[in-house]
Amino acid sequence: MSYVDGFILAVPKDKIEDYKAMARLGAEVWKDLGALAYVECIGDDVPCGELTSFPRAVQATDDEVVVFSWIVYESREARDAINAKVMSDPRMQQYDQTNTPFDGKRMIFGGFQPFIQV
């Protein structure tokens, strides 16, 4: 069965076009290097809950939008190999922890092993 990396982050509304450009490049690079799918979603119906919610999880402010994304790989081993290649790909060198259109310290991410896939 496949393997999935998931991400939740907050992007300032005035930087969403910059984020989309970065995401388009990311999609191209990850797919070129072997990812099976690459999906980026902008929050459209993401209410702030009383205790927990997507906005609370990433400490989103009123001038930010929540982004939810995932990348699908053939396996965890494939993911590890692809991510290593992505990090050294020259196309991605323009982005580092200080040069992204969002606050990477508030990004939540992790790898997941699917148990149902239809």
Describe this protein's structure.
There is one protein chain. The chain is of the alpha+beta class and 118 residues long. It has a single domain, classed as Alpha-Beta Plaits (2-Layer Sandwich). The protein has three helices and four strands, in the order βαβαβαβ. It has helices spanning 16-32, 54-57, 76-88; strands spanning 3-12, 37-42, 64-73, 108-112. This is DUF1428 family protein. It comes from Phenylobacterium ferrooxidans.
At a glance:
With about 120 residues, the protein is of the alpha+beta class. The protein has helices at about 15-30, 55, 75-90, and strands spanning about 5-10, 35-40, 65-75, 110.
Q: Runs with pLDDT <50, length 5+?
A: none
**Total number of strands:** 4
Round the Cα radius of gyration to an integer and report it: 15 Å
Structural category is alpha+beta
Look at the structure and give the CATH class.
Alpha Beta
Gap from first CA to last CA? 11 Å
Shape summary: globular
N to C succession of SSEs: EHEHEHE
Beta-strand fraction estimate = 25-35%
Looking across the biggest beta sheet, what order are the strands in?
2-3-1-4
Largest sheet: 4 strands, antiparallel
Q: Quickly give the CATH architecture.
A: 2-Layer Sandwich
The number of helical runs is: 3
Mean pLDDT: 96
Number of domains: 1
Instruction: Briefly note the CATH topology name.
Output: Alpha-Beta Plaits
| Portion of residues within helices | 25-40%
Protein name: DUF1428 family protein
InterPro entries: Dimeric_a/b-barrel, DUF1428
Organism: Phenylobacterium ferrooxidans
Pfam families: DUF1428 (PF07237)
